[in-house]
Amino acid sequence: MNGRFSPGLAGVCKSAPMMKPVKSLEAAVVALAAPALFTLPAAADTRSVAKIETLLGSDTTLTLAIGSGYDDYHRGSGYRRGLNQYGQTDWEVRELSRDAVQACRQAVRYEARQLGYRDVDIDDDERVRQIGARGFFVTLDEVEFEGRRRDVETRVSCEIRRGSVVSVEGIPYPYKGKPPR
Asked: What is the mean pLDDT of the segment spanning 129-142?
């Protein structure tokens, strides 16, 4: 019991109040909110909610809830602040997708040269879709292949896994002889 003991009758000690009575509601709220300030660091380390309830009167309750449970509930179980489903930040995804587009462009140029095309013009119309932690599916919408007798414009798709091109689809096979009419 918090209080000073004063001698009473026949050597029995009785409790005397140690503090003055609180006369304002603001001071009572501050006094009752003090335990919440001590639980704040503990609640910040865990993914739970620290909740303190104090009875102010017969029908009045002061409730303080501190923690991060509200955000977890409303954002879903797979949400992590600033990370995608593979645990990467937006900056890392941009960097990896840029490398994937460069690898796709390089592979398309190489395959076209192997098939006998003289020049390859790749426009900036590209779509990148992430299919894994380090896997991307790149679609180049307008790719022009220039041969000796004709130019072919088509869409080319690449699949990139771990920085390497796994497949290239959509490169037209050059015709030998007269072009079809």
From this structure: 94
Question: Taking the domains of the chain in order of start, what are their residue ranges?
Answer: 16-75, 90-169
Q: How big is the chain, counted in residues?
A: 181
- Planar angle of CA 84, 90, 96, nearest 5 degrees: 100
* Residue 53: predicted pLDDT: 77
Which two structure tokens, joined as six digits, stand for 172? 């037209």
* Pair 145, 137: CB distance under 8 Å: no
Task: Please say if the pLDDT value at position 86 is more than 70.
Answer: yes
Stated as kind and residue range, the H or E segment containing 100 is helix 90-115
Q: How deeply is 8 buried, as exposed, middle or buried, from its count of CB atoms within 10 A (0-12, 13-18, 19+)?
A: exposed
Residue with tokens 């004709």: 150
Residue 131 has pLDDT above 50, yes or no: yes
